[in-house]
Amino acid sequence: MYNKNLDHEILKLIEAQPEISEGDIACTLSVPEELVKIRIENFKDTRQKILIMGNGNNISNIKMTLEAEDYNVVKVNVVKAPEGFSALEVVKSEKPDLVLLDTGLADIEGFKICRQLKASSRYWWIPVMMLSESDGVKNRVEAFESGADDYVSTPFNPLELRARVGMILRRTRI
């Protein structure tokens, strides 16, 4: 059963019987109880998720700026990816609505990760905003040639960052 259909069936059962247990849902739908628990847990946080892949002080500032965001257009859930990671595995496990990607990651060049994401049949649609300490034209051009949807140089203006993030997330909902 596909996730959307499973989610729909779970919600129908919960609406019909608000006190139904996860075990009873699993039994009724013939799926593992652990899967039902995971799907129900995913219902609880409906905020849009932003995955930050990078290192350094700017990442902490970006995380604080976006977590403090309380305007109505975009609510975000920020996850910081650890160093030494497989970018595609992190995207697979986190299922972000937007990836903020530092161009100067320690293990692998950010442009290469962007190319991998955009070449993937599973993740090409996830928008990527590149972050860089360099404001040079060469970096911006390489970011866009890598498939990036936007580019922000650091230090960033918090108002501009929120506006750019909001614009990308609105655009993906259309």
Automatic annotation (TrEMBL):
- PTM sites of type 4-aspartylphosphate: 102
Classification via Gene3D superfamilies? 3.40.50.2300
| Response regulatory domain segment(s) | 48-169
* InterPro entries the UniProt entry points to: CheY-like_superfamily, Sig_transdc_resp-reg_receiver, WalR-like
Q: Which UniProt keywords apply?
A: DNA-binding, Phosphoprotein, Transcription, Transcription regulation, Two-component regulatory system
Report the protein name in the record. Response regulator
Record organism: Methanosarcina baikalica
Q: What is the lineage of its organism?
A: Archaea, Methanobacteriati, Methanobacteriota, Stenosarchaea group, Methanomicrobia
